[in-house]
Amino acid sequence: MRKICLVAGGTGGHIFPALAFGQWIKKWGKDVSVSYVCGSRPLESEIYASAGISPLRLPLSGSPFGVSNKAERIKRWWETAVSFFKFMKLSRKEEWDCCVLFGGYVSFPPLAACHLRRIPAIVHEQNAVAGKVTRLASRMGKSIASGWNECLPLPEGSFTATGVPVRSFRAVERQKGWDFLDSGRKFPENAIIGVLGGSLMSKGLVQLLYSIIGDEAFKNYTFLLLGASGATGPEKTPGNVVFIEKQWNMNSFYSVIDGAITRGGASTLSELMLWEIPAVVVPWKLAADGHQERNARRFVELASGEIWSEDDPPELLKEKILRILQKAPTARKILPAGDESERLWRLISSSIGRETANLG
Fold it and tell me: Is 229 found in the same domain as 199?
């Protein structure tokens, strides 16, 4: 039996592609055992638990790079060292044939351990801009898979564009989807605009939207804010705004919305493309190396989308929201998931010199 380790932690943007890839292997694989490794943040355990998975955990809470507080920086370097030796021990025990690193802070110790132990390691970079671990892995000669057709600053030919593995989804009837979301509100008869701020939810995004949601142009629209409950006081909530709790299963949410306003996380953008949901992307300005801006550009090239910068006037955001709703397809075609995972598997197989006959 082949053994594969999937390393993913930090936020849902790293974890969900790993879960999607693992689900694909489970569906199509023969004699393939999958292990998951994450860090110590509670959010990571919560996301994995929602998928019924108990990952192996490294005692690592974040990256030691870019930390200004000296004590915190020392703490994280210590955690990194401990995690490195723990992963070395795990790799000897589990005897993995290959490790796939889905980026983020938790990937650094496994990358170093795999390099020393000569375990084939492939990095999947979800973003259009390579993170620190991805750039380091490229310099070490590791195979790089990219979620887009660019992976800056890596030159063309040094990475393979596989796309971002996306979870399996099943559309549900809109009324049933709304009831499942348990918003406490009657199903609206008007258009519904979903607001996604990532697995950590962006309060800044909510505050930006409040400047235009009450506009006369949106009186017949409902704004469905995912995971934003408590972001603002109830006395400030316009009547056309509905808060719902975090949803790790997104079937119902995607089934009821007509358009979206979202940050520029690669995983979310890939899911919106799968569902053919038009979106206004509001890249987070503090995202490392401007990767959300680059993700947004690639999304707009491939899908029905607009980009609005936080420096742009609110009036322009209003125009872009109305514009994407005009682009909404009259009949949604849900595309089959799996192509991205298949391309990633082929890269893994070629990297470790094995045949893929055991997969469908």
Answer: yes
